[in-house]
Every structure is written in C-alpha cells, then in structure tokens.
Write a structure and sequence with these properties.
Elements: E1 2-7, H1 18-27, E2 31-36, E3 52-57, H2 59-72, E4 75-80, H3 86-90, H4 97-103, E5 108-119, E6 122-126, E7 129-133, H5 134-149, H6 157-174, E8 178-184, E9 187-199, E10 203-204, E11 208-209, E12 221-227, H7 231-241, E13 252-256, E14 258-263, E15 268-270, E16 273-275, E17 282-295
Parallel strand pairs: 1-2, 1-3, 3-4, 4-17
Antiparallel strand pairs: 5-6, 5-17, 7-9, 7-15, 8-9, 8-14, 9-12, 10-11, 12-13, 14-17, 15-16
Amino acid sequence: MRIALLHNPKAGNGTFKVSKFVRQIEKAGHKVIYASIKQNDWQNVFAQPIDRVIIAGGDGSVSRAAPWLRARDLPFCILPLGTANNCARGLGQLQAAEYLVTHLHSAAIRKMDLGLVSSPAGQRFFIESAGVGLLPRFMSAMRIAQKKNGSKLRSLAQGRLNQAKKYLWQMAKETPKFECQLLVDDETESGEFLLLEAANIGLIGPSLDLAPTAEPSDGCLDVVWVRREGRKGLLSYLKYLRKNPQTAAPVEHRRCRRITISRSTVPLHVDGKVFDEMATPCCITVSPGALQVIDFSNSIRELG
C-alpha cells in the first residue's frame, strides 16, 4: 500500500525517530510518502495516489488533516505524539508504533463524524470540539505563555497536562461571564455562561472529559455548558481533576445535530484554532460519517 505519513516534528519530547518508523513501514512492504505538517506545502501529499494516512502528531495535526482526509475519503490512523492526544484517546488510537505497522493492512475501517462551524466569517471543520468562553481564552493564554518561556519541551506530556489544568483552574476564577442565546436543535437556551462546547469527541482541551457519552460515529454532537452560577462547581471540578481524572464535570448536557448561536461577542475556538471574536449567527452542525478511521480496537496494545 501507499502510505502518507503526516508528521509533526515538534510534537512530543524529541524521542520519536521518524526515520526508524519509516523503515518499519517500508519493511512491512509499503511505500511511504512523507510530509512534515510544519511545512507550508504539506497538503501537496494529497495530490498523490494514497491508500492510507498515518498522522504522527497531536490533536492539532489531526485537526489540520481532517478536511483533506474528508475530501479524499482516505482511511487514517493516529500515532499519538502530542500532549493531550484527545483525538487518539477518543478514537481508541493508542497503539504502539510496531503494532500499527503490523496491523495496518488488516485492521477494519469505520466511519466517524466531522463537525462544521458556519458563520458570516466562513466555514471550518472540526474533529474534536468547537466552543466559546473559557476554553478559547485558555488556549490563547497558553500559546502566549509557551512562546514566552519555551517550556513546552522541558517536561513530559503528563507534566504539561497537569500544568495546563492548574492554569485553567486559575483562569476559571476570573474568566468573564458572557450572555448567549442559542438554539439547540429546536429548543431555546439563553442566559449568562462561563463555558459552552459542542463536542464530537468527549475529551476537550487539557483532557477534560466534558462529554463522556459523546460517540464520534452517532451522527450527533454533544453540547455542554456551565452557567454563571456554576462557577463554584466548575472550580471544584478543575481542582480535584488533577488528583482524580475520573471526576465528573458539572455541566448541563444535550445531544443534538445543530447548535445556532444568535448573540454573543466572545472568543471562539474550532479545535485548536482560536478566533478573538465569534461572528454571529454561528451555526454548528455535524457531517455524519465524513471520515474513515482505521480501527485497531479489537486488539490494541497501548503505549506505556
């Protein structure tokens, strides 16, 4: 098979040897077409004949590749090298590199959904989540902090996650409330909120399990929110989450196919991309079965 390897060379702690991984794939009888997702022309790989795609990186790499995978209708799998690896965990893509290579040709393929945000500013797909309020503010602040102190590569993934959760807890103390009016399918909700997320995969941001019942192949989105009066419960959740990852999130929850936000002036994130102000009306919908995932779930060997 012809395998496109999309690699983020800045993901992880520098221990992943891409040349060794390429040799493993070639030894299994496949042709490798390599592209660094950090290069400006990485999308050109999709102009070539391809049978499968491996994404060696984190959630950002998966998000960037998703629209191209949809356009070419190509099966893909993830070799998780990022910090949170929400997409890999949500899709059961925690196989070790050796396992991935040896089972690539025989693993089943299943469909999964893709989210879409539409507004006067344009359209953008998401594989993980889209939302307004606390999380886009947090994402922007974390990027600024990482650029300033260059600390991202000086600690292991779990250490970075713990630092991120602590920082999120601090931000949640003072994050401003926002007024929002939304239509969840045909039901109206309005009020003052701290957080609002439309999830395709249950894990969001620094591995927050805000939508534990989310199923990325059910043709629906899980929308969750925290109102202004829920700040105390949100702070308690974020505090204890660092000690107990199984802590239940204090969110209101609906399963739906469409969310329309008709009034709000807060930052918006679509996966890892942050927009300083959301253009309204903003409609968030789901495209059922838009992606093909190589499914290793029947027999999986997780990373240590």
